[in-house]
Amino acid sequence: MVFSFRKMSSFLVCALLLASCATKTAYYNDLGNLVSNRKYSEAANLIEQSKEKEYGKKNALLYYLDRGMLLHIAGDYAASNAAFERAKQLAAEYFTKSVTTEASTLLVSDNMRPYYGEDFERALINVFSALNYVFLGKESEALVEARQVDHFLKTLQVDYGHKNTYQEDAFARYLMGMLYENQGQINDAFISYRKALDAYRMYEKAFGVPCPKDLPGDAVRTARRMGFNAEIKEIEKTWGRTESSADAGGEAVVVVYNGFSPEKIDSFFEISFGRGWIYVDQVNAKGEEAQKVEQARGIARSILSKEIVRMAFPKYTPIGYRVKNIGVYSGGSSVPGTVVEDIGAIAEKGLEDRIGRIRARTIARSVIKFALAKNISQKVGDKKGEVAGWLAKKLLTVAATATELADKRSWRSLPDKIILARMPLPEGEHEIVLKLADSRGVEVASMPVKVRIKDGKKTFVVARVAQ
């Protein structure tokens, strides 16, 4: 084997560049500042300008997700949906590839794979797309999104055999129920409301998000219109007797995206080579990677079991924000906002559900790379001397550590929580005011919004709060 310090140095530089690319703190800080100052179009432009530099091919999905989200809150709904449609295609394509190749790519760092999105991220694409169509006046297309998210959630539960906590999206079901009801599809509305009720029972236990107070009444109202008396009794047995809102009149449905979703950071971890090698025996490598595993297995006998291997796993850390309570006011009436989707809690629980699998693969990959690096340094030492061998080992160890930074990618332009407030209003033009308060109830700011209410319809309003 021919060894070159120049080649090794080049490899090290590439590894460190990879590590620096994995951390995009400055970019997302700039993006967050623009969102906080409600400069949504400027934020969308920043994403477009940063397509190659900050995203690149492996993060193409994140580019379309971030762009779609910023265009959504900027009010450019058609362009937002164009981005989200491309995001759907990439997510499906990359996920399918990951299922077929994951078992045979043990030695490839997760950062080197195309990002295909978290389960909840892929479900939320349909949620935001549906709202885009509502604002474009294309509610039939919004129902297509409702059916797509229904299919996706069923796929999570059946086809992929997921055992993660997140297998249903309560807010998606709740929103789709309202959209179906707006279009007079009462049976579909009832089914969505009923699924939302079931999902919120899980949400309260897993994510601390209780069922919205209006939802049982929605389910009862639509069940009554369909003549589902047995279902009404069952719902009231579980949720108590409900005050079902009347079919007449209109309603403002205010959807508030609050705060910033948590970010992933590196959690560094050290393990002895001997303990780490146990994980290698649990993997089933194939093809070329199987040969490398066998090569490492032969080298492992010459490595002291107490030698330390360093690696990193992802963990979430929250991003602080001041506004915690949101109320909606109009005339002399007011309604409090209710958390209907805790994205931060869902993300953290999802990572917790799969961290065992991530740890096993990361440890196995790290100790195999450690053994292969040890082999190279021994050969360098034999040819170039003890000092050269020592230097080769250090360089390769640094390079291996750099390439083993945790996969910290996520849809960072998401809010931390989605808050919903529903206010009954008569037909006509109204000004509603969103009052924003901190955790102590001290008002931080207010946001006036004009809305036209139609009789018998739910009128949706979206607001972004990031302060």
Short description:
The chain has 16 helices and ten strands. The protein has 467 residues and is α+β, with helices and mostly antiparallel strands.
Which key phrases capture this entry?
467 residues; 19% strand
What this model shows, in words?
- This protein is of the alpha+beta class and 467 residues long.
- The protein has one domain.
- It contains 16 helices and ten strands.
- The strands form three sheets. It has a four-stranded mixed β-sheet with strand order 6-7-1-10. A four-stranded antiparallel β-sheet has the order 5-4-8-9, with no helix packed on it. A two-stranded antiparallel sheet has the order 2-3.
- A hairpin with a 2-residue loop joins strand 4 and strand 5.
- Helix 2 packs antiparallel against helix 3.
- The protein is elongated.
- The N terminus is likely disordered.
